[in-house]
Amino acid sequence: MGYDRTVRVRADFARTVAAARQALAAQGFGVITEIDMAATLKAKLGRDMENYLILGACNPQLAERALDTDRGVGLLLPCNVVIRTEGSQTVVQALDPATMVTLTGLDAMVPVADEAAHRLDDALARLAEELNG
Which sign does the torsion angle of CA 119, 4, 77, 89 carry? Predict the structure, then answer.
């Protein structure tokens, strides 16, 4: 089973990050955490790597519904979105919300995961349309 939803765009990293933030916001996701893996690995290990940013995106209403179903699902929140450079493209990946259902085994999580997937898919489609034309 795949665990991601992915789009590839023909835009530079900085433009993709800005557009991804806007596309996520349009679907009710705020970015509550941000991890610059390239900067972290450089600072801590002296290792260079491609641009690699992890955005912790949260839709509060969906998070509340998921937590009301299973308090332990907080281990999977927020929805992680990775933006990274791969060759001449920028890749945007979101964790597939279906993993919440798979890992918890709770049927009650299905509607939450389905709505989150729909919103993330819309955000990724909007991003791809905007940046790929």
Answer: negative
Which residue bears the tokens 């998921």?
A: 66
Q: Which domain holds residue 99?
A: 4-132
* pLDDT tens column, 36-65: 999 999 999 999 999 999 999 999 999 999
Q: Is the bond preceding 111 in cis, omega lying within 30 degrees of 0?
A: no
Residue 1's pLDDT is 59
Helix (H, G, I), strand (E, B) or coil at 35: strand
Which strands form 30-36's sheet, in the order they lie side by side? Answer: 4-9, 89-95, 79-86, 52-58, 30-36
pTM: 0.94
Domains of the chain: total = 1
What CATH number does residue 47 fall under? 3.30.310.70
